[in-house]
Amino acid sequence: MYYNVSAMVNIPPQQRLKIVKQYLNRGLSLREAARHLNINYVTLFKWVKLYREKGELGILNTYRRPWNRASIDLESKVVQLKEHCPALTVRSAKKILEHEGMRISIKGIWGIWKRYGYCGFRKRSIHIDFTDYIPWSKEAKDAFETVKAIFDSKSPKIAARILNSVPALPNNDIIAKIPDRLLNSKRRVEKIPRLFGQIALPSFLRKARRIYKLLCSEDLNYSALRVGLTIIVGLEWKVDPGEHLRMIRKLKDIITKNSSPRGSYLLSIPKFIILSSECMAYARLQRMRKADITIKNCKKMLIKRKDLSPHILVDMGITYSNLQDFRLAERFLLMAMDRVDETTKKRIRCELANIYLGKGNLRMAKRILKEGGFYAWGKSSFIKLFYAKLSLMEGCPQKTLSFTTDSLSLSREESLNQCIFSALFTASSAWSALGYFEKSNEILKNISLFLRNKNLREHKNIVEIILAP
Known about the structure:
- The structure is a single chain.
- The chain has about 475 residues and is an all-alpha fold.
- It has four domains: about 5-60; about 70-195, no CATH class; about 205-310; about 380-465, Alpha Horseshoe (Serine Threonine Protein Phosphatase 5, Tetratricopeptide repeat).
- Helices cover about 70% and strands about 0% of the residues.
- It has 25 helices and no strands.
């Protein structure tokens, strides 16, 4: 009998599983079933054996470990070293392993770290979401393609088991659809950036903090650093500078763990993200001297880099915007505009719209907003607030009050402190424009109390000056 060998090799995993189940359900001998299904009986025997040993996962996961790959124990040790000390270099890791009687080349260590997403980054794609710039390994590609083919028809448990088997999984849409309870710690770390702006800010921060504490307790410092970076960016949105700085200090301790006080050059991007975020926190606390020193250190780091990611330029633009240096903020944001994806363009447009509104360039601000200028948390509240400010500048305080009421309600739901302050301050200005000065002052007093409770000195001083007799 003729067997189409090439066709058998290319049979999709889900079809192989169906064939094995047909054989097991019919009660035929191996040769009879193979003849009936028109496949080689040796092939069927291998599939059945794999199914009995490893279940459905053995059939669906087509990746096979290469014969010359490092042993599982050695690979686990190499990964453990990097997780424990994020600043560790390949040469230092080699010396540690040799001291413990394990022999492996520098290339071998690099290969393992690359598969696990610790190096080999696409440098021009580097930003807060590390899954965008870690490389796809063959193992990850095979697993992802299999899951993509079966995800609609199979239980998430099977998909999770396949995805949990790979060392690192770059950016994809499937992982966000799988419950956390089915994912291992690595997949949960990779899932966190996918939830950025997709769930309520308080829920996002709770989830990220829970994973961060778990990773720290297991001494997985590299993964904890990655989750910690998303937490400090989330705190930038919440605008809680006290908590913000406490988290930054923890991340700095991870970066300098078992290394020089300056940290390793391998962690220059996480260090830059931490510095730019720290600068925002200092600015909000009115510690301008420290903010100025921090932004200068950020600029020095940019000058030293050969391959500069446009996302880093965006971070610089937003940092300068928080420092009220709108000229430099606009310059950095426009430099990055044509080099980033659509999601990041929305982030840039959001900042530019507010900058142009502050300049009084209402036409440009409205044009950018129409192109789609809001993303992540508080889309609706930011849009309402934008139109509230716009209406006030156009001489329509009644419209302003309507927009600020809506914005305030939405902002409180997501604990967006900056947006809450802006909505209240804009409402106070609108009441003042209508001649209701007592109402305006009453709102300002409420703002002062709110700012004192949140330790937002940046705005507190302005409000106190206005309220001064």
